[in-house]
Design a protein that fits this description.
- This protein has about 475 residues and is an alpha/beta fold.
- It folds into two domains: about 240 residues, 3-Layer(aba) Sandwich (Rossmann fold); about 210 residues, Rossmann fold, CATH 3.40.50.
- Helix content is about 45%, strand content about 20%.
- It contains 16 helices and 18 strands.
- The strands form three sheets. The chain has a ten-stranded mixed beta sheet, sandwiched between helices.
- Strand 10 and strand 11 form a beta hairpin.
- The longest helix has 21 residues.
- It starts with 6 loop residues before the first strand and ends with a helix.
- It binds GDP-alpha-D-glucose (GDG).
């Protein structure tokens, strides 16, 4: 379909799949498996993608990039502060992650959230063809389904929440909770990472709106008197397993692996890769490693812990404080155990190029994924996808969505520091036969439920929505 007639499929996400950059084209592809998966769908259906391009007071004229029709949503500096850093990342993010840090409730940031959600809805309404399908993504845009339905009752609307949905007792803190629920219920199909998230959401519908739910959903009468069946289900997201595997098999990755081996020496490698976020449990790992060195259960000459900590949301106070605490802990451990020639912790506060990241996945004997709460955790699945010789051990927090299906990982409770330490020791000493048996099962799971099948599964169910 063309820009004049409108598009049959419209993806709406906080960010566009490309970022403005000083390149000949004026943009670069944004990294990430989700972008890859949705790009495939948008290209195949000749659809459009509505989102912010990361610039301040940028334009709103659609443009074509990476074979997709892109529709930018402009944002002012004040809106980035109040909508994005404020309501999305200092209110909803901590609230939806079990209040690990205290959510901020401010009327001003809520007003900005509503205004920006209106703008996203308006842009989506403007480019969707009659009867089109619109797929809205994530916690930054919870009001968009309702706002969009009010403008365009002809559309079929899906929403996918990438982060957890909290128990009602926590959600009830949000002063505008019933508005958020009503906004989400503008969708015909709501997808969550885990069945638990879907049932938390249904309970919030009952408790905050008095809605009656049945089976996997509820019936609702819209303000225009139309009765609709809304379905609510878990669609656990996956990674681009075949794509990652193919890249890891390339000669260039093997060369990078050899270079890393040279730099890190003949030590066992334990790896962590995360956005530097307080949900990810990075301090749990540092504490476990520190105690294992202190107790002599691990020898700092024999192992190295590589932590990639990607900068993120650095204008939000809780993130700045956490970064300071983590860097202090890294310094303390290295101060105690480093020698002139090597340190037991390699801490990289930077965004890595994908080839380097894949080489690290390939070389790491043990992957530590210890979030206190995580919707899914793609890093765990990426590590598994990259273990093409079936070796390696994944230590995985039970509080990730990934733990539901990656049951052959060593599952840990990140609040139980002794349990985490024991799992690290078990992982470092695991015989190759056991590693392979576990990893084969994990790889099968990650291959079958990849990101492509996730996107197709959601869209097929959305297409089957009762009208
Ligand atoms: C949210 C939910 C859910 C990280 N550092 C670098 C880098 N990354 C890439 C990883 C991975 C992605 O970022 C992180 O994904 P996660 O799933 O681990 O975590 P969130 O960013 O919190 O994602 C989460 C996800 O949405 C999808 O639904 O799983 O629960 O919180 O792909 O590889 N990539 C590169 N350099 C880095 O330094 N190139």
């Amino acid at each position: 379909m063309s820009a004049d007639e409108g598009f049959g499929l419209v993806v709406v996400a906080n960010r566009l799949p490309v970022e403005r950059a000083d390149t000949p084209q004026g943009w670069v592809r944004a990294p990430g498996g989700l972008v890859t998966a949705l790009t495939t769908v948008v290209r195949r259906t000749e659809g459009a993608w509505v989102g912010w391009d990361g610039s301040i007071d940028g334009g709103s004229s659609p443009f074509t990039a990476a074979g997709m029709h892109l529709v930018p949503v402009p944002m002012s500096q004040a809106e980035v502060t109040d909508f994005y850093d404020g309501f999305a990342n200092a209110t909803l993010w901590p609230l939806f992650h079990d209040v690990i840090v205290k959510p901020q409730y401010h009327r001003q940031t809520w007003a900005a959230y509503r205004a920006v959600n209106e703008r996203f809805a308006a842009q989506a309404a403007a480019v969707a063809a009659p009867g089109a399908t619109v797929w809205v993504h994530d916690y930054q845009l919870t009001l968009v389904p309702g706002l969009l339905r009010a403008r365009r009752p002809d559309l079929t609307i899906g929403f996918f929440n990438h982060i957890p949905f909290p128990p009602y007792e926590i959600f009830a803190q949000l002063p505008w909770g019933s508005v958020v629920i009503a906004g989400l219920l503008g969708a015909d199909l709501l997808g969550f990472q885990r069945p638990q998230d879907a049932s938390n959401f249904l309970r919030a519908c009952r408790r905050s709106l008095g809605a009656r739910t049945s089976g996997h959903g509820l019936d609702r009468v819209d303000p225009d008197g139309r009765r609709r069946r809304i379905r609510v289900r878990a669609y656990p997201i996956g990674v681009d397993a075949p794509g990652l595997e193919a890249q890891v098999r390339q000669e260039s990755t093997s060369r990078r692996v050899a270079e890393f081996r040279e730099q890190l020496g003949d030590r066992r490698i334990i790896l962590g890769v995360d956005r530097l976020d307080y949900t990810k449990g990075i301090s749990v790992r540092l504490r476990a490693m520190d105690e294992l060195f202190a107790e002599g259960r691990l020898d700092p000459d024999d192992v190295v812990f590589v932590q990639v900590a990607t900068p993120t949301r650095e204008r939000v106070d809780a993130y700045r404080e956490m970064r300071d605490a983590i860097e202090l802990a890294v310094g303390r451990v290295n101060g105690r155990y480093a020698t002139l020639s090597s340190a037991p912790i390699v801490y990289l506060h930077s965004t890595m190029g994908l080839p380097d990241l894949l080489a690290l996945y390939r070389i790491a004997d043990v992957m530590l994924v210890t979030p206190l709460r995580d919707g899914m955790n793609l890093v765990a699945k990426e590590y598994v996808a990259c273990r093409i010789d079936d070796s390696g051990v994944l230590v995985l927090s039970r509080f990730t969505g990934a733990a539901d299906t990656l049951t052959k990982a060593l599952l840990v409770n990140p609040h139980d520091i002794e349990g985490v330490k024991d799992a690290i020791i078990q992982a470092v000493g695991m015989p190759l036969r056991e590693q392979r048996a576990r990893m084969r099962a994990l790889r099968r799971e990650v291959r079958i439920h990849d990101v492509q099948s996730w996107a197709e599964g959601f869209l097929a169910d959305l297409a089957a929505s009762p009208s």
